[in-house]
Amino acid sequence: MLFEPIEIAGIEIPNRFVRSATHEWMAQPDGTPTSRIGDLYEELARNEVGLIITGYSYVNPKGKSDDLQQGIYDDRFIGPYREIVARVHAHGSKILLQIAHGGRQTMITVDHPYILAPSAVVETTKGMTPEEMTEKEVLETIEDFAQAVRRAKEAGFDGVQLHCAHGFLLSNFISPYTNRRKDRWGGSTEKRTQLIIDIISRARELTGKDYPIFVKLNVTDGFKQGSHKHTLDAPESIEIAKILADNGVCAIEVSGGIAEAGDELFKTKIDSPQKEAYYREYAKMIKEQVDVPVILVGGIRSKQVMEMLLKEGYADLISLCRPLISEPDLAIKLKKGEVYTAKCVSCNLCSDESGIKCNYDFTK
Ligand SMILES: Cc1cc2nc3c(=O)[nH]c(=O)nc-3n(C[C@H](O)[C@H](O)[C@H](O)COP(=O)(O)O)c2cc1C
């Protein structure tokens, strides 16, 4: 099954391998994507990664999260992205632009010395309290995301992925830990999901109703059970997945964790099949409840587990981040039977501000 194609919202994806969105630290300081990013994606496409999702690209400089992050806040980015997309398509792979706003995890700069979030709840890793977004700021953000979707379409991307995970703005809105609003974007599960629905509706006005919109969804904030009174977890996150699918999202990538919960989002020490695919039970619950394909990410390393996930109804596609940093040719090697598991040891040394790369010393 791993090497069978799948169609999602009219996109024919040649196999079940997905490169999960990965910030590369390779854009120019103003967010312009570079040919170095194109080289990386082309290498993945040449090595038969069926669907490539870009690093998170910021929809407004007020929501930039990291240095050398790629942007999509201006029409001048369309040209450089078009070249990157063409390089990927030349090898038969498909490509989505992941779009994001940093929310509570926005980088403080001289130009943007404050953080915007749904509510003024202290962010404990930095000890900073964000400013609660005004209605005007929320409406502007909806427009920023929708214009980013339009730009992605004009650049030739096969679709976009809304980054609704990992403690960035859209996941701040869905989580009761970070969203304490009392207006139409806060309160009930439906109201906390409303911002994402509003973005989709406005994007549809600009691009037409068929342009594929994927989401990467946090299914849990990742806090230890019972440690926080207000927090996102199942079954509420499964309900959110249903609302999104009912509102036209074409596929859901299941992920979890926010910075404040620690080592949740990219776990280390994945050294046995049991520790792989750490969000698989959430994925299965979502798959049972929604009609759209489910993409699973997080600690998937071996062919045995990948095949099990597809066969036993946990997921429709297998998404990988760190394993494809150390082995961009992993999918081909698995296909040819040259290897049965990724060599990635999940050490996280690949988070390299000079540009992502595997920095683990395998000779040790
Ligand atoms: C260096 C690095 C950069 C990442 N950048 C992003 C990103 O831009 N967007 C995103 O949704 N997730 C990002 N992630 C999270 C991964 O996509 C993935 O969810 C996580 O690493 C777990 O998958 P893995 O075990 O296959 O690495 C990043 C992870 C790493 C290690």
Query: How is the CATH topology named?
Result: TIM Barrel
CATH class, named Alpha Beta
The percentage of residues in β strands lies in: 5-15%
* Average residue-wise pLDDT: 97
CATH homologous superfamily title: Aldolase class I
Ligands in the model, by name, code or SMILES, are: flavin mononucleotide
> Which secondary-structure class do the elements indicate?
alpha/beta
Radius of gyration: 19 Å
Number of helices: 10
Largest sheet: 8 strands, parallel, barrel
* Number of E-type strands: 13
End-to-end Cα distance: 36 Å
What does the overall shape look like? globular
Which sequence of strands runs across the widest sheet? 3-4-6-9-10-11-12-13
Number of separate domains = 1
Account of the protein in words:
With 364 residues, this protein is α/β, with parallel strands linked by helices. The chain has a single domain (6-336), classed as Aldolase class I (TIM Barrel, Alpha-Beta Barrel), CATH 3.20.20.70. Helix content is 30%, strand content 14%. The chain has ten helices and 13 strands. The chain has helices spanning 35-46, 78-89, 135-154, 169-174, 189-207, 236-246, 280-289, 303-311, 322-326, 330-336; strands at 6-8, 11-13, 17-19, 51-53, 57-58, 94-100, 116-117, 131-132, 159-164, 213-218, 251-255, 294-297, 317-320. An eight-stranded parallel barrel has the order 3-4-6-9-10-11-12-13, surrounded by six helices. Strands 1-2 form a two-stranded antiparallel sheet. A two-stranded parallel sheet has the order 7-8. Helix 8 links the parallel strand 12 and strand 13 (317-320). Helix 5 packs parallel to helix 6. The chain is globular and about 55 Å long. It starts with 5 loop residues before the first strand and ends in a 28-residue tail after the last helix. The mean pLDDT is 97. It binds flavin mononucleotide. Flavin mononucleotide binds at residues 20-23, 55-56, 98, 163, 165-166, 216, 255, 265-266, 297-299, 320-323, 350-351, 356.
